[in-house]
Amino acid sequence: MNTRKTALHRMLKTPTDTGWGFSLPRIFTAASYQLLPGACLLCGLSAQHDIDLCSTCEQSLPQLGLHCDICANPLNTVGICGRCLSQRPTFSTVQTPLLYQYPVDLLLQRFKFGGQLAAGKVLSQLLIQHIKDRMKSEKSPLPNLLIPVPLHWKKRFSRGFNQSEIITRELSGQLNINYSRHAIKRVINTPAQHHLSRKERQQIPHNTFVAGRESQLLQGARIALVDDVLTTGSTVEALSRTLIKQRAKSVEVWLLARTPLDN
Ligand SMILES: [Zn+2]
Ligand SMILES: [Zn+2]
Question: Rounded to whole angstroms, how far apart are CA atoms 179 and 170?
């Protein structure tokens, strides 16, 4: 059974709590919310005017909280995690507002495997707000080039879209930053990360990514790599190394949500 079928199977089989004391199959609720403009994507009640979530559901989303300054792995204190201290990543920071936990995982699965663009848009809007807040509080300059984490062409073809590109387009429009989806390309099709153990995930071949036909844009650029969710970080580390090799000035990573490293 392929990934898409597995996800659909899970949606059909896994009931979702409606909040009204009974449950419905997830596929039913996901489909019904798509038909109700202005409805909260999670509970179906009236959404706020600027985002397809009601304020109760938005406030109940799992926030990142205290985390490593570099890789954003959740910590009990401020500072840098042991993993980053022992081996400093090539990227300077990971920025994300949310943890990859329920119901963020549900929204992401609807977006990525169910093709529900509204779910991707909601999560992108939350990331944009996070980036704007950070810009104000840290007075840090924004990157000047966004790069979506590329999929191998076979995976893009079978899924029909690259979720990172859709997120990047949203960010580019709202933050007024250029993006390129041809500056770098993926030439090795690594298996889906979430099916692998952590050790296997860390073994991304060093030549997985190579310069693409717009690689001249990378020279001297302050880049934000955009992806949906980060697990071990091995993909963005491999990409960051390739970008720096192509003379990018700096690389940071922007994500919709973060999975704790030990999960
Ligand atoms: Zn709601
Ligand atoms: Zn760290």
Answer: 10
